[in-house]
Amino acid sequence: MSASGPTPPGKPQARALNCPNCGAALVLRSFNNAVTIVCEGCHSILDAKDPNLQILQQFKAATDKDRPVIPLGTRGKIRGTEYEVIGFERRTINVDGAAYSWHEYVLFNPFKGFRYLTEYDGHWNDVSTLKALPERVSFSSPPKVKYLGETYKHFQTARASTSFVLGEFPWQVRVGESVEVSDYVSPPRVLSSEQTGNEVNWSMGEYMLGKDVWKAFRLPGSPPEAVGVYENQPSPMSGEAKSIWLTFAFFLLALVVLMIGFDLSAQNKEVFTGYYKYDSNRRGEASFVTDDFEIKGHTSNVELKTTTDLNNRWIYLNYALINETTGQAFDFGREVSFYHGYDSDGSWSEGSANDAVAVPSVPPGRYYLRVEPEGDPGYGMTYYTITVKRDVPQYSFYGIALGALLLPAILLSWRTLSFEHLRWAESDHPMITTSGDDD
Amino acid sequence: MRVLYIIYGSAVLVGLSIAQYQGWSLARVNEVKNVPRSVRDNPGSYRSVYSSYHHYTGGK
């Protein structure tokens, strides 16, 4: 896309002309600023600077196939300035044998000059030419350029050819002409360079939603649905991911503060200790009850620890923590087993001779334990100690809370990464390359 | 999104605080009401729901 500044207009007035080839009426909307004008009837490209409208090129095209979705002559406001659509072209690049086409609309305002709108698969860009040259960043891979303090990363370089034109253009447009186009992105902006020989034109595009284009030009209906992820389409999650991780850091700090707070305020008080033995060779009733003990404070947990002298054996203990006054019981069973040995893989061990369990939400009161040990006959004597503690911090909940806090942040980051992966998949620098891409 | 996360994260921390204060636990514990006082004198009269548990007999 190449352009020059507008000729200062006198009284704005469209010139009415006729095509020298087919005689169809032509309307020159950009006054003396158009360099070429294309006849809609016979597709003749005419020299707009020539009073006789010399025919520069004729091409064959099915107009219906390339009808602009914003008709020529439509006016709309872009960034507060009213522009009129005066030209339309289709440009095509070939990548790995596949043709990709996009559309460009030439907009004109008598005081502001030319501006462009591009559209590819429902993705729109508001484009204007640059007044200064971007600066190339040395030794960067992929290549980068800097413009107005912002760094743009190279996306793609391809040869683009003009395949259809309509209306007026501020340059010598020809169907079939081609230029080398390089895009550098920093969403939502894209810098594009178009090189023909030694001449390079730079332009900057800013991503626009189809609905905003429709609103700006007061177009009927709704815009075509955007397909896929476009090169400079802003990620809907990129800013969010950063803010979520910052919030996560705050929650992590709060989690640590809570952990220290509950650790310091927990009673963690031993309320009962008993030493017992179990003879698995002895027949008869093995169950027994302990002395009663006082559990104080608010409703909280009770940790019951079993310490044994097990060695390549197991013991199973049926426990019931019974409130002497109310008859409320917390019934649970604990298997304690510890095995170890040596084989061809070396030494091994399994289980533990000790066990701890937290009984949840135990109200204060006087309690006793009913204990019923079980074991394989022939094991003989097992010595074990039962220790009961009140209000013991449970660290597993901190792990669960940490996981619950991490999950949304990880999911959001994953979605952001997926979006970027889709964006760069179509570039010269895909995030993941397959062996086929290397060929 | 951030507001939703703040609400969600706050709920997680409030839930954690309640769990810690109330002494919740992940252990499998069965609550039984009205255990007779006679258990004190006759422990064998009480049948634990875990009595039928199939015990591990192994090692490597």
Short description:
The complex is a heterodimer of chains A (439) and B (60). By secondary structure, chain A is α+β, with helices and mostly antiparallel strands.
Structure description:
The complex is a heterodimer of chains A (439) and B (60). By secondary structure, chain A is of the alpha+beta class. Helix content of chain A is 16%, strand content 47%. Chain A has four helices and 26 strands. Chain A has helices at residues 210-216, 238-265, 396-425, 435-438, and strands at 15-18, 25-28, 36-38, 44-47, 55-58, 75-78, 81-95, 98-109, 113-120, 123-129, 135-137, 144-147, 150-169, 178-186, 189-196, 199-208, 269-279, 288-289, 293-295, 300-308, 313-323, 329-343, 346-352, 354-362, 365-374, 381-390. In chain A, the strands form four sheets. Chain A has an eight-stranded antiparallel β-barrel. In chain A, strands 18, 19, 21, 22, 23 and 25 form a six-stranded antiparallel β-sheet that branches. Chain B is mostly helical. Chain B has one helix at residues 2-22; one strand spanning 30-32. Chain B is rod-shaped and about 60 Å long. Classes of the chains: A alpha+beta (439), B mainly alpha (60). The interface between A and B is large, with 66 and 46 residues. Strand 22 of chain A pairs antiparallel with strand 1 (30-32) of chain B.
Number of helices of chain B: 1
Measured on Cα atoms, how large is the radius of gyration of chain A? Answer: 39 Å
Flag low-confidence runs of chain A: none
Order of helices and strands of chain A: EEEEEEEEEEEEEEEEHHEEEEEEEEEEHH
**Spatial shape of chain A:** rod-shaped
Uncertain runs of chain B = none
Helix content of chain A: 10-25%
Mean pLDDT of chain B: 83
Beta-strand content estimate of chain B: 5-15%
* Approximate shape of chain B: rod-shaped
Structural class of chain A: alpha+beta
Strand content of chain A: over 45%
Count of individual beta strands of chain A = 26
Q: Could you spell the SSE succession of chain B in H and E letters?
A: HE
Question: Order of strands across the biggest sheet of chain A?
Answer: 7-8-9-10-16-15-14-13
